[in-house]
Structures are given as structure tokens and as C-alpha cells.
Amino acid sequence: MSDVDAIAAQCVTCCGESLDLLAGRAVFWAARRALLLADWHLGKSGVFGRRGLAIPGGDVDADLERLQTMIDRLDIASIWVLGDLMHAPPVAADDWPERVAQFLLANPTVQMAVVAGNHDRVQREHLPASLGQLIDWYTGPVDIGPFRLDHEPDSVAGRFVIAGHLHPTRRLVLGADRLRAPAFWFRRQYAVLPAFGSFTGGHNIRPSGDDRVFVAGPDSVIEVSRR
Amino acid sequence: MTRIAERRIDAWFAAQGWQVFAFQRKAWTAFAQGQSGLIHSPTGSGKTLAAWLGPLQQYGGEPGNGLRVLWITPLRALANDTCNNMQRAADALGSPWQVGVRTGDTNASARARQRRKPPEALITTPESLSVLLSYADGGKLFRHLDAVIVDEWHELIGSKRGVQLELCLARLRTLRPALSVWGLSATLANLDQAMTALCGRADRAVLIEGEARKDIVIDTLLPKSLEQFPWAGRLGLALLESVVAQISAANSTLVFTNTRAQAELWFEALLQARGDWLGRIALHHGSIDRKLRQRIEQGLRDGELLAVVCTSSLDLGVDFAPVDQVMQIGSPKGVARLLQRAGRSGHQPGAVSRVVCVPTYALELVEIVAARKAWQARDIEAREPLRRSLDVLSQHLVTIALGGGFDQEQMLDEVRSTYAFAELGDAQWHWCLDFITRGGQALSGYPQFQRVVAEDGVMRMTERRLSRQHRMSIGTIASDTAMRVKWLSGGSLGTIEESFVSRLDKGDRFLFAGRLVELVQVRDMTAFVRRAKRGKKAVPRWQGGRMPLSTQLADSMLRVLERFADGAPDDPELVVLAPLLSHQASVSRLPSPGSLLVECCSTREGHSVFVYPFAGRLVHEGLATLVAWRIAQQSPRTFTLSVNDYGFELLSADPIEVTEQAVRGWLSQRDLIEHLVAGINLGEAAKRQFRDIARIAGLVFSGYPGSGKSTRQIQASSGLIYDVLQRYDEDNLLLGQAAREVLEAQLETRRMEATLSRLAQYSVTIIETQRLSPFAFPLWAERLQSQIMSNETWQARVARMAERLNGASDDAVKVAT
After folding, report:
1. Does B39 reach chain A within 8 Å, measured CB to CB?
2. B447 close to B438: Cβ distance less than 8 angstroms
3. pTM, whole model, 2 decimals?
4. Do B797 and A179 lie within an 8 Å CB cutoff?
5. Residue B809: which pLDDT band, with cuts at 50, 70 and 90?
6. How many CB atoms lie within 10 A of CB B367?
7. Is the CB of B266 inside 8 Å of chain A's CB atoms?
């Protein structure tokens, strides 16, 4: 993914707000200079390695590079992680907390906030202090403008929820040609973001007729709703 | 050592009313001389006793002091019956030996008993043998082992299970250098190779031919008139009435189909035709719940079932004595396969095995004649053993590291003693060692990764959780991402491919396990269904089952067509088919050996080229893609491709220039693999192929049965792992293996190369047809499942798919195969 590719965008209007859905699997809310992403699952490959499954690391670097591109090219003041920042508490051998801390120190104009969600197993206490102190940590949903930022999608009266948790993907089929891509899933009362982390799986969604679905590809975001 | 006297065996045989066959005596003598070997003969001909009485006679006169004989079966459902037969022989000959069974189904207390006091003979599967070798005291269990007998070796040889078994046998030979290894096999074209792969050193092995096969009759249910018989299609319900009559006339019939979808539809159609057969006929295929399948098998054994509609799920297995008729719906695909199926009937002494073929469309009548001719000429397919499967080797090395550990150099010699790894390079070997110890190149900087560690020069695995995880993962049997299908009200129906369910919406209906059901919801990898009323329905498309026509059968077909052209159609099938073949000859030509037929036809849909290499579906898929890619190189365009076992079609909106020179260029052998790799989306195909490789090599862990959450942290799809490896560890040899397997197994590149070099010798006949010829018609009908080939971007593909979501009804996607 080149620099330009990560920020290739599709614009949607939601609750009167204009949101850019980025090919790099995040949402840019220009009016608030906010970048929204979900389900990074930092440290996942390390968990695999400790369990004898030979998965190489390197995903953290790719994710940070992608994030740096967005920061460089878009006017971002805050990064909101909508839950599942990490896959499991880091162990001493993991170097990702240090990498992420350095990344944040190198980008002092950007503040990172995490909406942990009620059900997150992994809390800020699990982070080394060097990283923990750089992050604003919310243990419950946060309301901004017409939106409620949360981890698990849900219908809430009077607010449109933006969430993650599901890792939505959409499977498309045409004859023998088939593909599966991370998806932004906009429903009547909430939107679900695709998982941001490179080493995350997905869950095929079954959109109903009113839903809008956008898939993120290597260099573009395309709407695949039924109309 | 007390031998059992030969006359005792003779007396027992005589008392049973049997006679000792020459090949049996030959096998016993060879065993007594310490030889290994391969016995090939048809099923039900006394192979089991030929193999078993060798060691039993030699050593069975006194208690064995431990395990003496291992009997390997590919099918755990076979184990109990085999055990009973072997025990009966031992008892009858006055041997004190006990025969036991050890499979994945054996419960913990039986296992513990076996470890305390092993039986003299143990029946097990390749997977369970690996598990036995993974115990630290595994060597102790085998310290008195004299013989290993591998049943149905022809079933294992072409698969990774065969590779796994080769490695286990090499290990047993290291533990017991004088070990005799015997195999039982159906007839194959490459018996010598099969024997070498099994017995290791060929100089001590002997090939023993069983009794000549009893005769096999290949009959056909002929359509009454050709006018009412379809030119294309796969269900063949046109002959339903005759099939019903045929089933009624026999005591018990096995109705073989080529795909699970076809089995579902035939079962439903039979019940529609004869409502009174409810409960008397059954449906059997690999996705149906195991308990239900076992009940059906018992019903067959007891003679309670009039007919069972089945797939290859009943190709193997114990003999169902009451079955007196076998039917084959649709193409026989291969000679060996048809013989195997025919052999499932006629087990009564002196009975002839007979198979009644049911063509599903007109040209299949030629295939049936071709199969008969090939059988008469004893022209039977080969099954090639696999080589250099590094995923299996990696798994085996961890197994042995767990089972007491290994010394690197000795292990390398042992591994290279197998047929599968005789040519294993040093670099590949070191890569495997690196992979199981440090996780490969990319993980070298991650000290937390510890699978196999060197202790005083011995490679071992000791960590308890990893050990348990590995034992759970032993095996190479392909597993799709299967979803359970359950009634909403409780009770399991079987499994279904996740990809099929993902294309269904709530309320959609589909046929499954012989019932019309409606999808209610999907939760935790389970599709919950309820009974549906009649209405529009889909039939699941399971993977597999689309095996290509064999080279033997395709060649035989061309000869049959040539003979017809020469005017000698004495076979009843050809007499019926004569008008259609004559029509082909008049509007075009009949395909024949020595000449490649190419037809061009322009229709409303565009410009079509039909090419008939007669090389089987998989080769044609590759060739169609190759030719489309080569044409598109000259002028960019989009093709629709259709393939079947006889040929392929390219359809384009723009005219295609067809000259002999152009055709020779399309089918040139130059840069074949490069062009193929460029033309097919190799990455996507390799990614799919990687699923099994990742599981076998221990890159994904599918979890403990019923463990749920505890392993969720380490769940990841093989596709994701493929992407990660591709990005950060591109030298990982398992990626290369996935690409190689796609080329060899999915595209049959070796057969493709052979086809192209054959076609280079052929003349080219180009015919312009006004309308579709009888050979072109089935290809045209295949278009529903056809693929599109063009040099499009991801964006363009998605845009087209999105259009489909809104345009054409989704039902088209869900049509049955």
C-alpha cells in the first residue's frame, strides 16, 4: 500500500456529518480532525509465537506506517481506538508497547484515546507506564457530536453509535470469481468499522436491504450495498 | 518360536468350505522368508487372510509378549470388522493372540489397557500410529514388532496420509530393522512404484498377484429414445423411471453419484417418485452426521435397506453382503473408480460384479462404452505418490521430537529412506528444522517461540501445553471450514461448507441430508435450520467431487469415436447414440485421435471458440485460462471461459482470429508455467491451497473439541497467515509448496504438458458451425459456472460484483451443480 493508497477515501454523510472511509481501514471525521479506528489487536503475533505457532511479527510496523501516512496527509488531532487496542497483555519480550510509545512521542500533535468498552479483558493497567501515560483511556462509551463511540455496536436512543468489535468483512461472488474484503457496515442506528490491525481476521456480515456496505481494497473503498 | 502347522490352516479352510489360493500360500511363504511386499487383488478375494496368516502362522503359536503386528487401515469404520475377522482366524487356528483396535474413537480406558498390556495385533489408522509415536515411551510399545500390514494402500498412496505413513514406517524400521512391511492394494498401473513407496527398500520386496479378477459387467440404462434425452446436464433425472424399476427388481442397490449435490437431488427425486420408499432408502455422503451414516451402514449390512444413494463415501469399507446391485449415475470418470464401485456388489461366491451405468446426458453414453473397452484392455489408471510435502515432514518431526526426540543426522537418513523424501535437499531439511525450532527466519528474533529444542544434541519437545496441542493436530486429512447444520429444535444433521452458507440469507431453502430445510440463523459456526415447505430451493455446492475424466478413459473415448466413424458401432449405447454422433459429423467433425477439433460459432452472446483436447476438466481449466491470457496479451479483452471433460470454450464480445497458426500459438509449450502463473490468479489459488498446509505444518490450531474460548486467542484463518507470511517471510518454503500444489494438483500441469506435447503432433481441424454442435452444447450449458478472465483491477472486479448484487437475482448464484 503506497502513501496515497491508505487515504483513498469514500465520503459518506451520516447524521449530517461528513465521514471519509479510508482504504487504510479507518474513518476520518474532518470536522473534528478525528481519526476513528477499531480492533488493532496489537501483540497478536507474539501470542501465537508463545503458543508455538510460527507467525512472523512485522505487522506492528506495517500498521504504524499506515497510521503515519494518515497523520502526514490528513489534518488529524486525535486518534480514537474503539476497543481492542491490544490482543493480550504484553510480555517482557514484546517490543510493540515501546514502538507505539515512540510513535506517539514522534507525533506530539496527535492525541490517542482508547474506548475500552465494558467487556474488554485487557485494561490500561496491562500496559507499561511509558505507553499508558500517553493514552487517554475511557472505560465506557464516549459521546461526541451526534455520535457515540463504543466498542460493541448497539442501538442507543438518540445517538448514532460508531463501533468495532465485529471485524466485519464482506464476501462477494460473481461466477467463479470471489473475494472477501474488510467492510464498513452502516446500519440504521450504528456503524461498524473494519478491524484496523494487519493481523486480524474477519467475520462475514449478512447485510439486510437497508444497510450500506463499503469494502476496503488495496487502493480504494467501494460501496457494495444492495439498492 | 512355535509355528502354526500349515495343515492346521488347510483344515480350517476346508472346514469353512474355502480353498487356499496359490497367492495366499505364496504370501505366507514370502513372509516366512522375512520378505516384504505388496499383494494386489480385487476386494473380497481373501487378501486379508493372505496378509494376516503370514505373521500369525510364523509367530502366533505362543503368546506374543507384546505388540507383534500392526494393521493399518485408511478407514476407522473398517477397524472393528477387520478386528473380528482377524480374531476369528486366530481363535480358529488355536493361537492365543489377541487383536485390538486403536483409533480416534477408542476410549481412554481401552487405551490405558492397551498400554499396560498391548495386544499381539493392533489395528489402527495412519493418524493414530503417529499419535502412538508421539509418546515418549512409544519405542517401548514397538520393541517386539515384526510386521506392519497396510490395508487399501491404493487409497492412501496419492495423498498426504500416504506421506505421513511412509514417514511413520521409516521410524518403525529404525526401531526394528528386520521389520516386514506388507501392503494390500487394488490394481493400479504403477504397482511397482506403489510397492517401493510402501516397502522402502525394493530389493527385499515382492509383488504378489492375487486371483484373477472375477468378471465385471458394465451395463447401461439406455434412454428409450434419443429425442427425449438431454444433450447436457448433470442430474440425469430423465432416466428416473428406469432407475426406479431397476431398484425395484433387486434386493439391495447402491446408487453411486459423483457429487454430494447430485446425491441429494437423486435421493429427493426417488422419494418423490416412490413415496412408499420412505424409510427403505437412505442417503449417505461425507457431510452427513457420522452417527447417521453408521446407522445406514448397519442397515445395509442387515439387508434392511432397498437402496442407498451415496458418493465416494461408500467406495471403501466392509463388504455389504446383501448388496446385489451397483448403479453409477453420471460419468464414471475413471476405470479404476468404476471397478472399485462395481466390486461393491456380488460378494456371494461365484457371483459376477455388475455395475449399471446411468448416463445423465447423451455423450456420457460414449464414456460408458469407453470405460468398458478400457477395462477389457486392462488399461487402468496410476496413482502417483506425493513427494516433498514439507508440511507433513514438519509435523512428523515435531511428533518424533515429542516421542523421545531425535538426532538430526540419523533422522535425516531416516527421512531420506522414504520414497517421498528420497530427494530432500539439505536446504529444505535445514529449513524444516529451523521452522520447528525457531519458527523460521522471520521469527528468529523472537525468543519466546519454543516448539522443539535441542537438549544434548537431541531434538525434543517437552512443553506440556504445546505437546497436547500438537497431538490434537496430528493428521493430514483435509478439513474444509465446515459448519455444523443443526435443527433449531436440537439434533445434528451434518456439516456444510461455510462458503455455501455465507451465500444464503435467512429464510433461504436448501436440500440437505435428504430434507428440504430453511436457514433460521447462523451462530458459533453452526447453521440452525428448520423443516421447510416445498418451494424454490438451492442445493449445497460442496468442494471436491469434481474430479476430472482420467487420461485412460479420455483416450479410450477418442478411440470409440474413431471406431464409430469407421462404421462399426456394435455397442448398444452407440446404436442409440448414432443419430447424435452422425449429426456431429455432419455439422462439424467427430473428435478423433491424431486430430484436434476446433469449432467457431457466433451467436447473440458473442464469438465462441470451442477446443476439444479430451484431457479432463482440470487440464481444460488451465488451458482455457492460458489461451485466454495469451490472446489477451495481443489485444486486451475479457473472456468468459467454460470447461468440461472434453474441452473448453472461450467466449468474447469481439471476434477471435482462428487459424491453424493461431491455434498452435495458443497451445504452444513455450513458457507454459510462466504464462499459467501470470494468467491464473495464482496468489488466490495458492492461498486456498494453503489452508491444509498451514494446519498440517502447525501454523494454525483448530482447537480442542468443545474447548471454545480457551483457544480463541490463537485463532486465525490460514488466509490471514498466508498474507502475513507473504509480507514478512516470503522465503517460507510452505508458500512455495502451496503454489506447487496448485500447479500439480489443481491444474495438473504434468498432464497439461503431456497434453500439449501430444497436441503438437496432432493435425488441427477448424470448423465454422452455424449452430452449436452436440459437443459444443454441454460447454455452452456449463456457462452458468464458468469463470471470467481478464486483466482487471480489484476495483473493476468489485464493481462488477456490486452490480450483480443489485442486478441479476441472487438465485442464479445458488443453482445446484
Report:
1. no
2. no
3. 0.82
4. yes
5. very low
6. 25
7. no
